[in-house]
Amino acid sequence: MKRPPATLIATLLAFALLGAACTSNDSNGTPPSPSASQQMQAFFASYEVLAGRPNRIEVGLMRADQRSLSYGTVEFRFSYLGTQQNPSTPQTGPTATAKFLLVPGMQASSQPKPTFTLPTVARGVYEAENVTLDQPGFWNVDVVANLADGSTQSASAKFDAAAKPSYPAPGQKALKTQNLTMASKGVPASAIDSRALTGGKGAIPDPELHQTTIADVIAHHEPAFVIFSTPVYCISKFCGPVTDSIAQLAKQYSDKAVFIHVEIYKKYTQQKKVINQAAADWVYRNGDVTEPWLFEIGSDGRIVDRWQNLIDLQEVQQVLQKLPAMH
Known about the structure:
Elements: H1 6-18, E1 40-44, E2 49-50, E3 54-63, E4 68-70, E5 73-82, E6 87-102, E7 115-117, E8 124-132, E9 137-146, E10 152-162, H2 189-192, H3 214-219, E11 224-229, H4 239-252, E12 258-263, E13 265-268, E14 273-275, H5 277-283, E15 284-285, E16 288-289, E17 293-297, E18 303-308, H6 313-322
Parallel strand pairs: 2-10, 11-12
Antiparallel strand pairs: 1-3, 3-8, 4-7, 5-6, 5-9, 6-8, 9-10, 11-17, 13-14, 15-16, 17-18
């Protein structure tokens, strides 16, 4: 299927937000429908979903008062809507339980059910794993949340499932990229890691993430975990905490894999944004940058797995624990 233009997808997402709704049943004595400012809206957070393959699907849930839904689990219900050329009446698809992923560094909670929180208390997305959608085209996800206060709310978002990957995907050979490292000459430190702008004296943080290139680890048949992110300029504000957490894993599992951070921008100003070539090769498509991404590259040089946007670090840690020690 030809991938629809980004403007069409944006339009569908806008309709999804307009259609977000809450459910109630006043005949049973449950709370009445909340006001518009209290209604939950769904924001689709995965960058690429592939038809016919298992996917991790992320959805953020927020109200107009800027409180986001946090903790516990929610239910995802998928339905197929057809393609741009052949729209369809909704066809029932799979369902999945989605768990809450908290932004690294924020305080976890023992709260067992979803509740709305201020962004200073908890931020994150809900993620369902191993979701396989059998057809390429447009899909809808209905999110149903049973809240801690006893009420139930729902919201929906539309998205595209692609027939073929646009971004590097599991099973493909990893690109032999010459990313910038501590040894790179003639480039500002912020082009290697944007955190050099905020860390004092222009020092590049977490040097263990900036020692080698993707091309080198492939040539040496070493497993690698590569994080593409711009901690300072990240739109979602997930990049900094995620990059810091990958640096912690690099210290803990340096015997299991090589860890690499690729900064997105070589130069960033309001007037001009210059993307590092290594980032452009991997995460720049159709005029848009998506980040953060984490790619696992096997010792055979092929991509084993990839994580998009907010990353389940416990899952990554479990993967690392199962890897043999490098020689």
